[in-house]
């Protein structure tokens, strides 16, 4: 397998894990506390692994700190979106916005140029993802969570480009994964501890298994993506990662009792066609 094939494989595995940990956050009785447990689990794992890698250079520290700010903003919008909206509509919007923005950012900031087939694949994936938003009739109540999801998606696109530069500037992919995860996993658990300490303790006692599973899946998912970003074009990796919405749609139907239906099947087919176009462009 060449680098592109490895990247595609890693990202598709990551997509399954990403949809799963997002469903864990959405299913929690408190989205904020569940996310705090997910981040806390990832933090503890990476603190243990910290001695395995060297301290990053000043350049890499810059990317880590910027990414932490962008990731924290993304998490706050993520919580608001899941508190007010359905998983089946919020998740596709949140994952559909980044590929287009990442393609633009990577063109202007990273000087990455995609072939016609690859760009068509990115656009097909975006169209398929965003179309999942309209499987139900829009109402005024849905406007706020969708707006929150769009904002979250914009921050995802921003930190994806920053992380692509950061992981390529690091000594190893593992170095960037560990240091980034340590620092980006502090803000939400810290907020939960200082603002709602008793609620956090109660959530840990009652739902620690969910938090543990979510944290492991989150860490593995983003670690695979960061490794893929070091192997292939950022726009392609970002678009492929968002195929997690297919898994998300299945989870929404099975666990949240949201209808799957022929429209979601058609959207999934469009996304698969986009993946094929990206694959044949390599």
Automatic annotation (TrEMBL):
Single GO MF descriptor: transmembrane transporter activity
Keywords in alphabetical order: Cell inner membrane, Cell membrane, Lipid A biosynthesis, Lipid biosynthesis, Lipid metabolism, Lipopolysaccharide biosynthesis, Membrane, Transmembrane, Transmembrane helix
Membrane-topology annotation of the record: Multi-pass membrane protein
Pfam family, one: EamA
GO cellular component terms, A-Z: plasma membrane
Top-level taxon of origin: Bacteria
Subcellular location(s) per record: Cell membrane
Full protein name: EamA family transporter
Transmembrane portions of the chain: 6-25, 32-54, 60-78, 90-110, 116-135, 142-161, 173-194, 215-233, 239-257
One Gene Ontology biological process: lipid A biosynthetic process
PANTHER family recorded: 4-AMINO-4-DEOXY-L-ARABINOSE-PHOSPHOUNDECAPRENOL FLIPPASE SUBUNIT ARNF-RELATED, SMR FAMILY PROTON-DEPENDENT DRUG EFFLUX TRANSPORTER SUGE
Residues of the EamA domain: 6-132, 145-278
InterPro entries reported for this sequence: EamA_dom (IPR000620), EmrE-like (IPR037185), Small_drug/metabolite_transptr (IPR000390)
């Amino acid at each position: 397998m060449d680098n592109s094939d490895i990247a595609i494989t890693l990202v598709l595995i990551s997509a399954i894990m990403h949809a799963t940990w997002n469903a864990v956050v959405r299913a929690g009785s408190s989205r904020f506390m569940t996310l705090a447990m997910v981040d806390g689990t990832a933090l503890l794992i990476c603190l243990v692994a910290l001695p395995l890698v060297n301290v990053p250079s000043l350049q890499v520290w810059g990317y880590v700190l910027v990414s932490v700010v962008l990731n924290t903003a993304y998490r706050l919008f993520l919580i608001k979106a899941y508190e007010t909206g359905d998983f089946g509509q919020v998740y596709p919007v949140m994952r559909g916005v980044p590929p287009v923005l990442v393609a633009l950012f990577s063109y202007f900031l990273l000087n990455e140029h995609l072939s016609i087939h690859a760009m068509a694949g990115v656009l097909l994936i975006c169209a398929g993802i965003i179309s999942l938003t309209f499987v139900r009739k829009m109402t005024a109540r849905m406007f706020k969570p969708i707006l929150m999801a769009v904002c979250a998606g914009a921050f995802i696109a921003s930190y994806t480009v920053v992380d692509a530069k950061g992981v390529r500037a690091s000594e190893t992919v593992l170095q960037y994964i560990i240091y980034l995860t340590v620092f980006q996993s502090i803000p939400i658990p810290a907020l939960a501890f200082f603002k709602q300490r008793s609620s956090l303790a109660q959530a840990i006692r009652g739902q620690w298994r969910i938090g543990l599973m979510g944290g492991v899946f989150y860490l593995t998912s983003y670690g695979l993506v960061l490794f893929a970003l070091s192997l292939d074009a950022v726009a392609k990796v970002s678009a492929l990662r968002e195929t997690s919405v297919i898994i998300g749609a299945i989870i929404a139907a099975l666990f949240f009792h949201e209808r799957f239906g022929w429209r979601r099947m058609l959207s999934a087919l469009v996304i698969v066609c986009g993946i094929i176009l990206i694959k044949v462009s390599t």
